[in-house]
Design goal:
The complex is a heterodimer of chains A (173) and B (261).
Chain A (H helix, E strand, L loop, with lengths): L9 H10 L1 H9 L1 H8 L3 H8 L3 H22 L1 H7 L2 H10 L7 H14 L6 H11 L4 E10 L2 E12 L2 E9 L2
Antiparallel strand pairs in A: 1-2, 2-3
Helix pairs in contact in A: 1-2, 1-5, 2-3, 2-5, 5-6, 5-8, 8-9
Chain B lengths: L1 E5 L5 H6 L6 E5 L8 H10 L1 E5 L13 H14 L3 E5 L2 E4 L2 E7 L5 H18 L3 E4 L13 H12 L2 E5 H11 L3 H6 L6 E6 L1 E3 L5 E6 L3 H13 L4 E4 L8 H15 L3
Helix pairs in contact in B: 4-5, 8-9
Classes of the chains: A alpha+beta (173), B alpha/beta (261).
Chain lengths: 173, 261
């Protein structure tokens, strides 16, 4: 069977490199092999082979940093708890896959923190899940330790006029 | 030259208290895609507005994403801005969303793609369009020098340039070229707006949108203000918001730049 002509253009190939760390590692060792693997269009092959691995890594890091800033804005207390390690934890999480949706990204980062026994503020995890699954209403009972005291909190989440609203009550049980 | 700032809810009290010292607000379109159109109408009564997009990906081959174009146009309808703006960049490829601005090669093919999309955007929104230069660690091989590339895009599309002074400075340091030489290659008539904010220093400079404007940026912006008929300069502070007093200092820097016009 005759193989079809290469069809991937330069921007599509660059997008692939920026979002796949493993592909960049192979590119740094053998750019021609990656050009063949991606089936780069003949007219774009020369430009593709001129891409600099160091610049690709720096740009890719900028994209992951942007994802991290979105996550930090969504779960600030969880990130603060990890202080300087928060960014390296996110980098480790981000290597596993590229996520298109920022809501999905935040939610999966929360799952990563939980599954790897890293601190995760429960109310932030519930917000992330609420947004990720497009829920309209949710109620959670949460236990938090604040100033050395263990507290029970009832967290209400409501979607109204396109925005998430929250009300939390401390409970005396 | 109008002095302005990127509108953020966190800055709203400070903006309101500044009265006539701030004449122009830049609205990030994506922040108002699903709500806030009433706020836009109210802001339009008091300020000259510019609606700035982040996600239309004018540099991507193929059609613009219809749902984003529709949402952008609705924000423009609510804001009634003097300008709309976007970037000479791509943020998506097929179904892959990159979440950030990435460079396009300075080629004839890219010019055709960006010009087509720019015309479609202007026709849809009925407003003058400005296209912004981006910062990028990655350089893509091309046939044209970047200033010539931008000159041709703006000339062919009938749009202006939103010259991001910080992006230009960062690229000049990271890639080793003279930013004033770069500016001199631009057609001054296309430079209608400036963006400025402090950069994050380091081995490679970063466009963090969260630092005070450094002196070298003021010098470069002042040079550009003297070179081109710039109509507005916008402080693009997105994060790490300082105290009102320090924001006033940033505003004074913009006034200094304006005095070179």
């Amino acid at each position: 069977m005759k193989e079809s002509a290469p069809t991937v253009d330069l921007l599509a190939a660059v997008a692939g490199l920026l979002t796949e760390p493993g592909l960049r590692e192979v590119f740094a060792r053998n750019s021609g092999a990656v050009a063949d693997q991606l089936r780069i269009r003949d007219s774009d092959r020369a430009a593709f082979l001129q891409l600099r691995p160091g610049e690709l890594e720096a740009q890719a890091r900028t994209l992951v940093r942007k994802r991290y800033e979105n996550a930090r804005a969504a779960i600030p207390r969880s990130c603060e708890r990890h202080r300087d390690r928060a960014w390296s934890l996110f980098e480790r999480y981000a290597r596993s896959s590229w996520i298109n949706s920022s809501r999905e990204d935040v939610y999966r980062f929360c799952l990563f923190l939980r599954e790897n026994n890293h601190e995760l503020w429960q109310r932030e995890f519930h917000r992330a899940a609420f947004d990720r699954f497009g829920r309209r209403f949710a109620v959670h009972l949460v236990t938090e330790v604040t100033d050395g005291r263990r507290r029970s909190i009832c967290q209400f989440l409501l979607r109204w006029a396109g925005r998430r609203h929250e009300l939390s009550f401390y409970l005396r049980l | 030259m109008l002095v302005g700032i990127g509108y953020r809810r966190e800055l709203a009290p400070w903006i309101q208290a500044r009265g006539n010292a701030i004449q122009c607000l830049e609205i990030t379109a994506e922040h108002f895609f699903s709500q806030g159109h009433q706020t836009l109408s109210e802001l339009a009564d008091h300020y000259t507005l510019s609606v700035h997009g982040l996600s239309l990906s004018l540099g991507s081959p193929g059609p613009l994403k219809a749902v984003l174009l529709k949402q952008f146009a609705r924000v423009v309808e609510a804001a009634q801005p003097r300008w709309i703006s976007e970037h000479v960049a791509f943020t998506r490829s097929g179904d892959l969303e990159l979440g950030h601005l990435n460079p396009v090669p300075a080629t004839r093919q890219s010019i055709d793609v960006v010009v087509d999309h720019a015309r479609e955007l202007m026709e849809r929104c009925g407003r003058p369009l400005l296209l912004e230069n981006i910062t990028s660690h990655l350089r893509l091989p091309g046939d044209l020098r970047e200033p010539d590339f931008l000159n041709e895009i703006c000339s062919s599309a009938g749009c202006g340039l939103l010259l991001d002074v910080t992006n230009l400075f960062i690229n000049s340091r990271n890639h080793g070229f003279d930013p004033t030489d770069w500016v001199r290659q631009l057609n001054p008539r296309i430079i209608e707006q400036l963006h400025i904010v402090g950069y994050m220093p380091g081995e490679r400079l970063e466009d963090s949108h969260g630092e005070a404007i450094q002196d070298e940026l003021i010098s470069l912006a002042s040079f550009i203000a003297g070179y081109a008929p710039v109509q507005a300069i916008i402080l693009e502070r997105d994060t790490n918001f300082p105290s009102p007093d320090l924001l006033d200092v940033e505003l004074q820097k913009l006034e200094r730049i304006r005095s070179h016009r």
